[in-house]
Specification:
Largest sheet: 8 strands, mixed
Structural class: mainly beta
Shape: globular
Distance between the termini: 62 Å
Strand content: 25-35%
Number of helices: 1
Number of strands: 8
Length: 183
């Protein structure tokens, strides 16, 4: 493990893209919902941000590194001005990504092969590290997702509908009582 890695406490996973890359960033990513009560994780993330800012300056970074670092308050509007979802209330929101699929493990440290086991709403611990960027006129700090440990299941986020075979069995009644297929 790199010395600059941060292992979070138990956080909730949101916007999970491990089976396929996120279409906007073309990276594998997860948004971490970090409870505001997890002071240990937040202090470690802030220390990593400070380390990266010092390294950027020491390497001759001529522009002031922005304080924009990807950690947002889930109780306030997002940087784009929209409200975060209710699952973000009482949490800090941190998006982290990687160009390659990070290694994923279960609670006992056994590698998870079926990455669908890590989904939006489950609880994980994440191994992340900060890095600086200075490109396309933008300077800042972001986070790489180095590894994931699934801690426990949780209520799935993102809505959707989980169809069951019962819906397709004889005797299922359409909610509006209509035979929509003329059968």
């Amino acid at each position: 493990m790199k010395t600059n890695n941060v292992l979070t406490g138990k956080v909730r996973a949101s916007y999970v893209h491990l089976l396929d890359k996120d279409a906007l960033s073309d990276k594998y990513c997860i948004t971490l919902l970090i409870p505001k009560s997890d002071v240990k994780t937040m202090n470690a993330l802030k220390a990593d941000i400070d380390r990266v800012a010092r390294e950027y300056k020491a390497k001759g970074g001529k522009r002031a590194i922005e304080t924009l670092h990807g950690i947002h308050d889930g109780d306030k509007p997002s940087p784009k001005g929209s409200e975060y979802g209710p699952e973000c209330k009482g949490h800090y929101v941190l998006r982290c990504s990687n160009r390659t699929v990070p290694k994923c493990f279960d609670r006992q440290g056994v590698e998870i092969i079926d990455l669908s086991e890590i989904y939006s709403g489950c609880y994980i611990r994440a191994l992340v590290h900060a890095f600086s960027y200075d490109k396309n006129g933008s300077v800042g700090i972001s986070f790489t997702l180095d590894g994931v440990q699934k801690w426990s299941d949780g209520e799935r986020l993102g809505g959707g509908f989980d169809a069951t075979g019962d819906m397709f069995a004889d005797g299922y009644v359409d909610p509006d009582g209509e035979d929509d297929f003329g059968l």
